[in-house]
Write a structure and sequence with these properties.
Length: 313
C-alpha cells in the first residue's frame, strides 16, 4: 500500500493516478489533520510526498525553517514503521545558470528563493529522517493537465492576442509529463537507493514548441513574439520589487529564468539505477489528454501579458 500526500494538487493527483495502475493507493490532502494522517499512514509501506509546500507563483523569501508538513509526515512515518519515503522535489535545485546538459554530478547552484527552499527541504528531510529510507526524485520541467503556474497564464495571453516571451521561448528545455513523474516515483519506491537523489527527464523541446502544440489542440493561432532576455528580466525585477512577500507575482524573475534560459538534463544514470524510462516522448502524444483542460484555460481568457516598450527582437 502506498500513501500519496498532495491529493487535489497537480502533481499529487497525477502521481496517485499513475501509482494506482500498479499498486493500492491512499491519497491524502496536504492539510489533513494529524489524526487522519496517522490513520492513513498506519496501513502503508511507502509514503510519497507530492504536496506543493512552496508555490513558484508567489514572491518567496529563503529561510531555514523546518517545513511543517514534512516534519508531520516524518514523525507519523516513524511512529507507524513506514518502510520508505519518496520525496518529489525538482531539478530546479541545480539553478538557472547551467548552459550545458545537467547530470547528477553537476554542481548545485540555486539562485532563486524557490530553488533554494526546495534544496533545503531535501537536505532537511534526509537529515531528519536518517533512520528511515528516503529517496528524492528531481523531475525536469513537468507539464500536463492541471498545471497551475505557467501554462494557464501563457495560454490565457495567447487567447487574447500576441504573447511575448524572452527570446521567443526558444531556449532548450527538458520536459517530462506528469504521468511519467508518477511512474518514476513508483520506480524510486521499488528500486531507489536510500539517501539518493534521482533526476527524472523526458524529452528535449522548447516552450514555443509546447505552446504551438497546445494552441493547435484548441484551435488557436499561436502568435508568439520575442523580446531580449535582459529587458524582460528587468521588467520582472521591477514588478517583483513592488510585490509583497507571499503575493502572486507575474511574471517574476524566476518565471523569466524558467522560460528564457536553457534547462536540459541527462537522466541516464537514474534510468539505469531505477530501470525506468518515460512513456511520453512529445507534446503531441500528450495533447489528447490535455485538450479539454486547455480549452477551459483559453475560455477564461485572463488578462494579456503586455510587452515592455521596445521593438521585438
Amino acid at each position: 500500500m502506498h500513501l500519496v500526500i498532495g491529493a487535489g494538487e497537480f502533481l499529487g493527483d497525477h502521481v496517485s493516478y499513475a501509482l494506482a495502475v500498479e499498486v493500492p493507493v491512499i491519497a491524502l490532502n496536504a492539510d489533513a489533520d494529524d489524526e487522519t494522517l496517522n490513520d492513513a499512514i498506519s496501513a502503508v509501506e511507502v509514503v510519497h510526498i507530492c504536496a506543493e509546500t512552496w508555490s513558484p507563483a508567489r514572491r518567496l523569501r529563503y529561510r531555514k525553517a523546518a517545513p511543517s508538513l514534512l516534519k508531520r509526515v516524518v514523525d507519523a512515518a516513524r511512529h507507524a514503521g513506514v518502510r520508505r519515503i519518496v520525496h518529489l522535489s525538482t531539478a530546479d535545485v541545480f539553478g538557472p545558470d547551467h548552459f550545458a546538459r545537467i547530470t547528477e554530478k553537476t554542481r548545485l547552484h540555486p539562485i532563486h528563493a524557490y530553488e533554494r527552499l526546495r534544496l533545503f527541504e531535501e537536505q532537511w528531510l534526509l537529515d531528519a529522517a536518517a533512520d528511515l529510507e528516503v529517496v528524492i526524485v528531481r523531475p525536469a520541467r513537468v507539464f500536463g493537465a492541471g498545471e497551475d503556474w505557467l501554462l494557464p497564464r501563457l495560454m490565457g495571453s495567447l487567447a487574447r492576442g500576441r504573447l511575448w516571451l524572452p527570446g521567443g521561448g526558444r531556449a532548450l528545455q527538458t520536459f517530462v509529463s506528469a504521468g511519467d513523474v508518477g511512474r518514476a516515483c513508483l520506480a524510486a519506491a521499488d528500486r531507489g537507493r536510500p539517501g539518493h537523489r534521482y533526476l527524472v527527464a523526458g524529452f528535449d523541446a522548447t516552450w514555443r514548441d509546447l505552446l504551438d502544440s497546445a494552441a493547435r489542440a484548441v484551435g488557436l493561432e499561436a502568435e508568439i513574439g520575442g523580446l531580449p532576455y535582459d529587458l524582460v528580466y528587468l521588467k520582472a525585477l521591477a514588478t517583483e520589487t513592488v510585490t509583497p512577500l507571499g503575493a502572486v507575482v507575474w511574471p517574476g524573475i524566476y518565471a523569466v529564468d524558467t522560460i528564457g534560459k536553457p534547462h536540459y538534463y541527462d537522466d541516464s544514470h537514474s534510468r539505469r539505477e531505477l530501470t525506468w524510462s518515460p512513456s511520453v516522448g512529445s507534446f503531441e502524444q500528450e495533447m489528447p489528454h490535455m485538450a479539454g483542460w486547455l480549452a477551459e484555460l483559453t475560455a477564461r481568457r485572463p488578462a494579456v501579458t503586455s510587452p515592455p516598450s521596445t521593438s521585438p527582437s
